[in-house]
Here is the input.
Amino acid sequence: MTEEIHQLFNAIREEAEKRRNAFREAPVPKIHIGMATCGIASGAIETKKAFEEALAEQNIEAQIHTVGCVGHCYAEPIVIIDHPASGFPPVFYHEVTAGKAKMLTKLFLAEGDPRFEHVYGATEENELIPSVMEFPRFNQEKRVVMEKCGRIDPEDIYDYIAESGYSSLVKALQLKPEEIIREVQESGLRGRGGAGFPTGRKWELARQARGENKIIICNADEGDPGAYMDRTILESNPHQVLEGMILCAYAVGAGNATVYVRAEYPLAVKTVTRAIQQAKELRLLGKGILGTDFDLEINVFRGSGAFVCGEETALIQSIEGHRGTPQHRPPYPVERGLRGQPTVINNVKTLASVPQILNHGAAWYRSIGTESSPGTAIFSVVGSVVHPGLVEIPMGVTLRTLIFDICGGIPNKKKFKAVQIGGPSGGCLPADFLDTPIDFDSLTEAGAMMGSGGMVVMDEDSCVVDVSRYFLDFTQKESCGKCTFCRVGTYHLLSILERLTKGEGKEGDLEQLENLSLDIKNGSLCGLGKTAPNPVLTSLRYFRDEYEAHVSEKRCPGKICRALTAFYIDLDKCARGCDICGGCCPVDAVFSTKNRKKAIDQTRCVKCGECKVACPPDYQAVKKVSPPSLAPFIERPPKI
Amino acid sequence: MDEEILTEEALILNDIRSHLTTFEKERGNLIPILQMIQEKHAYIPREAIKLVAEYLEIPVCEVYGVATFYNQFRFHPPGKYPIKVCLGTACHVRSGDIILENFERKLEIKEGETTPDREFSIERVACVGCCALAPVAIVGETVHGHMAPSKVEGLLLRIRIEKEKQEREKLTISGNN
Here is the structure.
């Protein structure tokens, strides 16, 4: 048996290596372009087209290698040019527009000048160009799940195999299922979906459960409006997830598996579907995997976009063709799940970690991260940071390191105010927590939650009340309606928050927010309701003064809530005759006063802030104030 | 115009009818069927819900319940230029709602609606994944990053000008013939 597995797999690996070497040794430059959704959104398709056209025009031979996403969103579209003949190492370029692509083709590929002013760094150590590995955004990360993302072509299974892909499957097929489960248990891997349930324990329960047709589900129903790591992984390296699913199926004894991925992620759906097909062709999936008697079919189910379907019982309901309403647990899905069968539901990141654990061993995995939360965490850091994007760090790194060192800190010399972790289920932490190590337990203790890994960094010009309102607006819309506390409670919470942001808050509102939040937490069945009040509770705990300013002074300290702010033009600073603010105002609220200086008609102003952006830096005459009563009143002359 | 729309809808229903038979009559196929309709026709007509219910032999209210539960399904035909405004977390903190409001004001429709001439429709979407470009709006297939209220106006103006140009060209071509 063992021999047959090796024989079959060695043939595949040889083919992969042959292809890899042929690509590497070809005496032409290689252009690697990041083509995941984020790259495409920033214009990677145009960039690729520009390269192709320029290469054809100038008759240069080069290979274009489309890869996934490395997670450096601030730098998209990203291109790495490997041009050995020029004597330079592979060079990393950021924000490569179509024009830049044409220029690089001509000057670098044809003439050998890498254009230092556009270089971001080299991708390997050398003496000519500083390596990106010296930058904190690169060297402080620890890539376990996303190790191969952005390096391999997600549409080519051989690319993955050449990077030692599927080798842990070969290893696993020679082990007993129990041995795999033990290895996963020893690694201490905890579910990356947010709650952090020990994965090995889940698998063990499923293995012990009675059922003929056990099922594995990969949960890629990423619903948090600000998190996109699952999509990136599926788009950039789908085979690592598939490999994890195969390992899981083998360990628990399942013959069917489903990838539950959002229909809003068309590229991810396409990439995974193709990956399944390719794996089947190589007998890494399907009937008789690598010559053994282990069969596994994986299909793709497209989720229709309901946040609550991230909850496992709701997810099962939706696959069965019902509305996604959570069910009572127990029985847990590992005992009785989809179609009454024992079902293991694991997050994308959890499954993608497993091949790495089996490859490098449980002890290696334990050496990363903290004692209670081994391994890495992936965050999508957005908001007021210099380098937003996906960051994979070992558990236990502090928030300060993550935000200020890795992501470059707050732009425009503004002050840090808060960080919102875990999206709609998470909480808002102030500067005091910057030195908190990030892991499942410490975040829960602070009132936040690992959740989906969404992280919004807020500077002094943001309003925690408004952010709470934003998340409540989201959870209120996404509440499935089953539990009264969640359905009616979130609605009521939201209406109080809306009143606060409109300056209609009254005494007792804050107490009611608190009480209602606790009631919702206690009275809801699933994670959505239990965690929905977290953004409110934590911000109330740490930023009560801001809430109080909204209620008693009708003032928004961050000057964000539009009903509580006003714009006015400082007549001492305004330049006579400069009409730029009037020109950009979408509602004609700017008018000329007698001496042709400008003023704002408060009854018309929609407070979009265009005039403030447009006002030339020499004048900076447009001021934003809160409360609105601080803006001086200037009467608009009647129209003639 | 109205008649045109009616025949169009009849064609859509016929098409749906012919595709239904490719699915087995299982409750588990309800969502895939609705997705098929949504993808082929960009919305689920009222009559289609009845068709699906009859086909799967389940009550109409069940189909309606499922279709309205999930965000993917819409019940109005989108415009020729569907506008999606990202209101993911990153776009929200960079005032994505102001962009949405500007589109709503300029087109005189609300989010989720289509202009009476079926040219434009506005939708709000969660994160499209280019947070570094926030706030973001997507018109058709094109992503427009770093949106600002004045850009909204420019965008709509550009579409209108291009449309007029195309119509003029069409006229000259048919004139030449």
Notes: Chain B touches chain A through 46 residues (CB under 8 Å).
